[in-house]
Amino acid sequence: MHKGHEHSARKSELHGVVGITGTPGTGKKSIAPILASSLGLPCMALNDLARSYGLIGGDSGQVDTGALKRRLASALRHQAVVYGHLFPYVFSRASVERVAVLRCEPTVLKERLLARGYPPQQLVDNLEAELIGLIASDAFRVFGKSKTFEVDTTYFTPAEAAASAAEVLRGGEEPVPRVDWTTNYDSGLKLRTLLS
Predict the structure, then answer these.
(1) What average pLDDT score do residues 131-141 get?
(2) Which of 17, 80, 83, 140 is 20 to 30 A from 44 via CA?
(3) How many helices (H) and strands (E) does the chain have?
């Protein structure tokens, strides 16, 4: 089969929503559009969808995840790449095709978040979440092992990370084992250095 025909055949095997999720700073906003383009799908940000539905609180900026989940269940019935850290909390297993959880080594993530000007408490909260794999664990729990996989974005460009995710989505070999940063921070000193 010609490579172009093979690519199209594989691409058409995706029938629903493809999710990109992960802790803030792992690369969702950069990687999702590249992945969507390579798959020939539209790309949507969860925050933009929540805003368009009027589900983001005024001063707090908090998203009403329950209302967003209900709205997405009825409104989003076509193929798309949808990205956001809230993905595991607003989609059900039946409503998604596959979910890529972006991961980033916490010290590198800290540099990224500091460059964005994250305030101290928000910085620590996000570093702790990535260290223990909070969003990854929730994604695997909600969507199951057959639909969920991780992509380590630590030392890769957005294009490289998107290509890695696209390869898995087209039936390539999935990265194993699961990402575990805790072994890198196995002392109080290392943890204090990370979280200070």
Answers:
(1) 97
(2) 140
(3) 10, 5
